[in-house]
Amino acid sequence: MSTVVLTGIGLLATQTLECGDLTDAAVIVEGSRIAWIGPAATAPDADEKVDLEGRCVIPGFVDSHAHLVFAGDRSAEFAARMSGVPYSAGGIQTTVSATRAAADEVLAARVTALTAEMQASGITTYEIKSGYGLTVRDELRSLQIAAQFTTETTFLGAHVVAPEFEADPAAYVDLVCGDMLTTCAPYARWIDVFCEQGAFDVDAARAILLAGTRAGLGARVHANQLRPGPGVQLACEIGAASADHCTHVSPADVDALAASDTVATLLPGAEFSTRADYPDARQLLDAGVTVALATDCNPGSSYTTSMPFCITLAVREMGMTPAEALTAATLGGATALQRKDIGCIAVGMRADLAVLDAPSPVHLAYRPGVGLISAVWKDGQRVR
Description:
Elements: E1 3-13, E2 21-30, E3 33-39, E4 48-51, E5 56-59, E6 61-63, H1 75-82, H2 92-101, H3 104-120, E7 123-126, E8 128-129, H4 136-146, E9 153-158, H5 169-184, E10 190-195, H6 202-214, E11 218-223, H7 231-238, E12 242-245, H8 251-258, E13 263-266, H9 268-274, H10 281-286, E14 291-293, H11 307-317, H12 322-336, E15 353-356, H13 363-366, E16 373-378, E17 381-382
Parallel strand pairs: 1-4, 1-5, 6-7, 8-9, 9-10, 10-11, 11-12, 12-13, 13-14
Antiparallel strand pairs: 1-2, 2-3, 5-15, 15-16, 16-17
Helix pairs in contact: 3-4, 4-5, 5-6, 11-12
């Protein structure tokens, strides 16, 4: 098996307590894994040498919340929000109509384009949700398309109630828990539900999530995005891997998260795009909650594939330090996906690395909007 040494690293941000940041460092990659890290001067020989000329290296970003299988455009909705129209969950139905009408090839082409953008922004692992089909057929094909790009696929039949069931939402819950779940579960690792006014109440959300866990899927929850609600408490109650958004949390919600293994995944792109208040990351971190950052890439409320942009927002608007934001975008995302092979730079981990054309990760927030990702390695292979 061939080896590659990445040398000339000005700063290696390992995101591990054991190593911390290393200067004048090198990384040896063997196959898809990291085989050695340490001072460049003592690096073992390797088959190939790549000189990074003093650049900073960080773990590849881990995006644990993204909605990439969709068709259509909602720029007019964004423009209306910028003129003062409030955001609501109902806009999802616009994308549902467009997605149902789109051919598989059109949907796959959109995912291809968006994942290429993600990779260019340093994201090496991403989750993809369904949720814009809301029929058995369309949720199935959404997940089949998503599975072509990632193993982190999430069944989100419970995004909103399908329009055909507007008069009988309980029947739609039965469909999601029954035929839709049975059909979709083989193509999903996770199940998610939008627990929010205008989507699913706590009883329906609990029923859907428990049906999913009985089918062998891990649980995730869209929680407390638009207003205070029961979503965070539900996520902690059922042992969900993550409660996502956490924009409006009470002291009791923070305590519940701190006492659980549920990650609080914050999605500042949504607050930016909807002119909403940002979540208070500081109170979560100070309470000992594990925090992740994700793009929430979707056509309605957060149409961005840029993790550096989300890091900038987290630092500027949410009370996070640059170091905390980097950890949330790497190791935090890995924890939200319950992955122990990504999110940090250590021997034995997957060789998922992003190279910054900058001396330190602080520049991700210090230089907002600047494309600092100069190279990306995924599973030991240079992909950018």
